[in-house]
Amino acid sequence: MLLFLLNRIGTMLLTMFVISMLVFTIAEVVPVDPARSALGPYAAQQAVDELRDQLGLDRPVTVRYADWISNAVRGDFGQSIHYRRPVNELVGVRLGRSLTLAALAFAFMIPLGLALGCIAGINEGKLPDRIISLMSSVFVSVPPFASGIFLILIFSVWLGWFTGVSIPDPDASFFESSKKLILPILVLALDEIGYLARMTRITMAEVMKSDYVRTAVLKGIPRRRIIWRHALPNALMAPFTAIMLHVNWMIGGVVVVEVLFNYPGLGRLLLDAALRNDITLLMGGTLVLTFVAVATQVVADIGLYFMNPRVRFE
Amino acid sequence: MINSPKAPVLNVEALEVVYTTRAGPAKAVRDVSLEIWPGKVLGLVGESGCGKSTLAFAIMNYLTDNAAISAGRILFCDQDIVRMNSRELRHIRGNEIAMVYQDPMAALNPSLRIGPQLTEVLVEHKGSSGVEARDACIRMLQRVHMPDPLAVMERYCHQLSGGQQQRVLIAMALLTNPALLIMDEPTTGLDVTVEAEILDLISELKREFDTTILFISHSLGVINRVADQVVVMYAGELVEQGSAQDIFLDPRHPYTAALLRCVPKISAGVQRTTVRPIRGKVPSLHATPSGCVFESRCDRARDRCRTEHPEIEQTADGHWARCFYADSPDPAELEALRAGPADTRVSPIGDAPVLKIDGLRTYYKAKDQGLAGIAGRHKQGFVKAVDNVSLDLGRNSTLGIVGESGCGKTTIAKCVAGLVPPNAGKLDFIGIDIAKVVEQRPVEMLKELQMIFQNPDSTLNPKRTVGEAIARPLQLFGTVPQSEIRNEVVRLLDAVRLGEEYYDRLPRQLSGGEKQRVALARAFAGRPTLVLCDEPLSSLDVSVQAAVMNLLQEFQQEYGTAMVFISHDFGVVNQLCSSVAVMYLGKICETGPTEALFKPPYHPYTGALLAAIPIPDPTLERNSIRLLGTVPSALDPPSGCRFHTRCPRKIGPICEQETPPWREVTQEHRIHCHIPLKELRTVDPVFRTEQ
Predict the structure, then answer these.
(1) Strand B530-534 vs strand B562-567: parallel, antiparallel, or unpaired?
(2) What is the signed CA dihedral for A138, A141, A143, A148, rounded to 10 degrees?
(3) Which of A152, A198, A237, B214 lies 20 to 30 Å (CA to CA) from residue B261?
(4) Reduced to 3 DSSP states, what percent helix, strand and coil does chain A have, rounded to the nearest 5?
(5) Mean pLDDT of B202-221
(6) Between B108, B116, B124, which is nearest A220 by CB?
(7) Angle between helices A266-275 and A279-307 (to 10 degrees)
(8) How many other C-beta atoms lie within 10 A of the C-beta of residue B304?
(9) Mutate to test the interface with B, among A215, A226, A240 (most CBs of B within 10 A)
């Protein structure tokens, strides 16, 4: 067990190291001078040179990388060129908001996706399966930016139930602020629900046809127990892994949704940073984002370890 | 039938099961009537696709969605199972009728511990409390001779061996003391020694629990070992029924007789009889002939058989057959059945060596994933798959390698074929050193060495036609001129009895036996010096097996090819091989001419293997030698003699400490054992009846 944990965490650190090098290299290759972009096109060359000096941009690549990464490990990603504030401060606040959004979307989609998939899988080929399969196909094939616009049209323009903009108001009550998040969550969750339902449907249908479920049926076990005790734990393993793998995918969705609903999360921040040539912010934010992605992977692995006795005893 | 004061436990009356398929309805079971009497074992035998399993699941009223019972009744204690509602069925299933399945690993839930899987049966049917149920389950595991039942309750199924998994399923089935136990191929896929143990267990349970069993198997030998009564199924119909004695010694239906002739005989007489395959193939279930279903393949068939469908009729007391001419079997058939004249088609041991293996060692690294593995920080374990093996093979002769699964048989073949690099030792093939992987070998050499694999489904490229597959080696090796290739392929197709019409077919249009024939033709196309056969018959039905076996012999005669034949089936090895090597845990424990292996002196392991073979001959008496425990891990093989942990004839600490010497019986026949030859010679022979 301990070995397994160490192994996973070790692999994670290795991955992070490789990614940090990648991020750094990309920032290095991009033809953007951080000093110039900070001071603007009209600043005097001398001022730019001074700033370059100040930022230590003249030092060799390896030294700068070592410097950057050792600071990053301590949580210091430097100053944002555009905002002139520490990157970690900016990223921290925004990450919190993005995670809230993603977490709420997850909390909404996992039970719904799994439940729909199970119902479809158990009744493979029958009416409930057909309805759910059709629904999930639609959910999967409509991209978030399209479904977002549809939902805004329906719920905020026509029905006027929710606002189309989700800028959080610090003074609003919890209920008020969560109401603002309903539409973004829905958009984020919809195609994930479709994906999850389809996946679960397949594994569930497969498990229901497996030899061990047949054994259980021919043991005279009631159907309810067969489904909950014999089928579900086996059927949910693959979808669970898939959801966790999709966390990364969802980060992409978060960016789109944040832009769509004008929600000030990490995605929006990174997009803006990229548009404004804010290299330090972009690097720091990307690193944090990949860390989140890799860390969820480790959490998923550990979760699977407990779910699947085969992995546990290998 | 038998006059018994009691009523039959199960009475199947004129049952018909229909599958709805895209090609129309297929009657998988037609007009099947049978009775199972209390305390008896009814053996149901037939080849794949004959409807055995469909019948078994129909009795449980558990059929796939596209199947339905279209006629007939299944009376269990005077209640018709066909008409039961789901609540009544649930009461019967697992409680009154229990089932044991073919693939025990798949039949157990991978994410539940064994304990709850067992106890839930009692909790559900007997309303036992958890503690009661647990105790009862542990007692039951003890009764099926499960080692360490307490620990087993806490395990998952993948932590048990195949034999143990099957014991768990048998225990599970017996928990409620059911009136009927259905066993669907319970030993198929298990090693021959494990199979023998499970069959012993079934016989013992039959005596102790007085259980009534419907035992389904494709293997006549297995059926012979457990069944009191036997029914034979063919193409969905019941063709013959009678006592085990009747069926195996005096078969009345030509199909039963033909099936028995397909099984190679083994006995102390060491006579080889010709196996006679059944010609043609099973009629499609979509278009069953109006006459007798076996007519197209029957030697006895006359005009009447083509037009009229025979009813099953009593030929003698308790012996029934569905044949118009059941009372007048062809004398020639009977003659052939009773171990006919020895056939000496097995090539003699050749002199000129084709293959010399000397001190071959092949170790596999034990798997180790993750960071620690990458960094090499882990202590590396090695699986000694093949450990110091030396073998010789002469031109035109066949060397059989037998042993339980995981003993290293296939690894030897892979080394010779160059698929796995050996760690040490010499491999000499027609004077060329081949102790390297196939990419490094000279091209001319590749032609001389071909391989036939166990699973024909995965060895033929699904996108290539049969003709292309066979033509490929001809093109590569230039065996015949370019213009002659098609003719040569057709000649080969004829030789494997497929014919030119198969030239443009794709592998998916072929049956398993036909695919194996194509693989055979492909292997022999380049006229190789050596063909490695890795269990080429084990996935085939008996009748098909016989045909492929004969083909192998024909090819060998024609081309003078040497063969290495890997098999777990002693009967087949006896039929095909001139010499045999018996392997255990990566080492050879006995090697010698085939005839010599069936008589003492032999290695205790050889003796146990011989005693375990299921043979369809009720008159054959054999010593029962059973091995203890399971095969130890090859990662950490036992010291001294590797077989000492399971050896029934272990003589003392010397077996644990010292590697046994080679004892030479004759120049060719050698035994790797501490027991002196004199003692090995005096051991009771496995086959007691000398013929």
Answers:
(1) parallel
(2) -10
(3) B214
(4) 80, 0, 20
(5) 90
(6) B124
(7) 150
(8) 13
(9) A215
Helices (H), B127-270: 130-143, 149-153, 162-174, 192-209, 220-226, 244-249, 254-262
Q: Note which residues in 211-240 of chain A have CB less than 8 A from chain B.
A: 211-212, 214-222, 225, 229-230, 233-234, 237
Amino acid residing at A36: R
pLDDT the model gives residue B371: 45
Residue B690, pLDDT above cutoff 70:
no
pLDDT at B339: 47
Under 8 Å between Cβ of A168 and A117: no
How far is the C-alpha of A284 from the C-alpha of A177, rounded, in Å? 28
Nearest CA in chain A to B106: A211
Q: Where are the alpha helices (DSSP H) in B227-353?
A: 244-249, 254-262, 303-307, 331-337
Q: Is A11 on the interface with B (CB under 8 A)?
A: yes
Local structure of A20: helix, strand or coil = helix
Mean pLDDT of chain B: 86
How many Cα atoms sit within 13 Å of A189 on the Cβ side?
Answer: 20
Task: Please check whether residue A100 touches B, CB under 8 A.
Answer: no
Instruction: Select from B176, B167, B163, B247 the least CA-distant residue to B211.
Output: B176
DSSP notation for A149-194: HHHIIIIIIIS-SS-S-----TTS-HHHHHHHHHHHHHHHHHHHHH
Prediction pTM value: 0.83
* pLDDT beyond 60 at B522: yes
Domains annotated for chain A, with CATH where assigned, are 97-263 (1.10.3720.10)
How many angstroms separate the CA atoms of B201 and B198, rounded? 5
Give pLDDT tens digits for A268-286.
888 888 888 888 888 888 8
Residues 6+ apart with CB under 8 A from A46: none
State which amino acid sits at residue B22: R
Three-state secondary structure call for residue B360: strand
Task: Yes or no: say if A204 and A123 are a contact pair by the CB < 8 Å rule.
Answer: no
Q: Do β-strands B424-429 and B398-402 pair in parallel, antiparallel, or remain unpaired?
A: unpaired
> Distance between CA B175 and CA B589 in Å, rounded?
41
Separation CA B312–CA B321 (nearest Å): 5
Return d(Cα A212, Cα A235) in angstroms, integer.
12
Measure the CA–CA gap between B262 and B425, rounded to whole angstroms: 40
A37 inside 8 A of chain B by CB: no
Distance of CA B534 to the CA centre of its chain: 14
pLDDT at B372 over 50: no
Q: What is the pLDDT of residue B42?
A: 96
How many Cβ atoms sit within 10 Å of the Cβ of residue A167? 10
The tokens describing B275, both together, are 């196996």
Confidence (pLDDT) at B56: 94
Contacts of B124 in chain A (CB under 8 A): 219-222
Looking at the predicted structure, is the pLDDT value of residue A68 above 90? no
Q: For the complex shown, is ipTM > 0.95? A: no
Interface of B with A in 49-88 (CB under 8 A): 60, 62, 65
**Chain position carrying tokens 């090539």:** B347
If residue B359 lies in a helix (H) or strand (E), which one and from where to where? strand B353-365
| Alpha-carbon separation of residue A34 from A27, A266, A268, A288, B389 (angstroms) | 10, 21, 20, 20, 69
Phi, psi angle pair for B354, to nearest 5°? -95, -45
The residue assigned the tokens 């180790």 is B368
| Of B8-12, B265-269, B330-334, B384-388, minimum mean pLDDT range | B330-334
